[in-house]
Amino acid sequence: MKREFFARSVHDVAPELIGATLLVDGVGGEIVEVEAYDREDPASHGHRGLAMFGPPGHAYVYRSYGVHWCLNLVCGGEGDPQAALVRALEPTHRLELMRARRAVEHDRALCSGPGKLCQALAITREHDGLPLDSEPFQLLARAREPDIVAGPRIGISQAADLPWRYGLAGSRFLSRALR
Fold first, then answer.
1. Is residue 4 classed as helix, strand or coil in its secondary structure?
2. Triad 4, 145, 133: Cα angle to 5°
3. What pLDDT does residue 47 have?
4. CA torsion, ordered 42, 46, 117, 13, to nearest 10 deg
5. Is CB count within 10 Å lower at the N or C end of the chain?
């Protein structure tokens, strides 16, 4: 997936990420859950004019509550803060390395949340601003049209009711069930 894919509204890009494969240094899996954030969204880092994101097709990595790294895929146009937070993957590539990094055995626990996902893929601040279409990232377009469900976002206090959380219907790898 090239940078041009991301140079559109996050509300178009986010659902199209479901079913794509995300790898970092060959480690990762199929994206099963994302959340959309845009400039008008009071829960977005870009809403109050905070420095955020970057050009479309790049990574925006930040630390949530000073504890967990979170990976966002920047969308929209330059200077227009929009991004899709990658919330969960179905792990498919290099599971043993993910298990060692996370110190868990069950596949479901490897990438079922943005902090878990970043720990399993060893994503840190060093990945912030890197282009998504070159190493260490690899994003492969989905091979099939998945059944996608949408619902309210989670883990935020403002605008949580917006149905901007997208997930693969029936996936057991979601951070939380989408109904």
1. helix
2. 25
3. 44
4. 90
5. C
Query: What's the pLDDT score for residue 37?
Result: 84
What's the rounded Cα separation, in Å, for the pair 80 and 60?
13
136 upstream amide cis, omega within 30 of 0: yes
- Residue 119 contacts by C-beta under 8 Å, 6 or more apart in sequence? 68, 69, 101, 102
Tokens of 40: 């008008």
Could you tell me which of 91, 93, 100, 83 has the C-alpha nearest to residue 37? 83
67: exposed, middle or buried (Cβ count in 10 Å: 0-12, 13-18, 19+): exposed
Question: What pLDDT score was predicted for residue 43?
Answer: 44
Closest Cα partner for 87 from 145, 157, 150? 150
| CA-closest candidate to residue 46, choices 33, 34, 36, 58 | 36
Look up tokens 């967990």; give the residue: 68
pLDDT (mean) for 30-42: 81
Q: Which two tokens stand for residue 45?
A: 């880092």
Please count the other Cβ atoms lying within 10 Å of the Cβ belonging to residue 55.
15
Asked if 75 and 16 count as a contact pair (C-beta separation under 8 A), the reply is no
Q: Please tell me whether residue 130 adopts helix, strand or coil conformation.
A: coil
Q: Which tokens hold the place of 110?
A: 């490897």
Predicted structure pTM score: 0.89
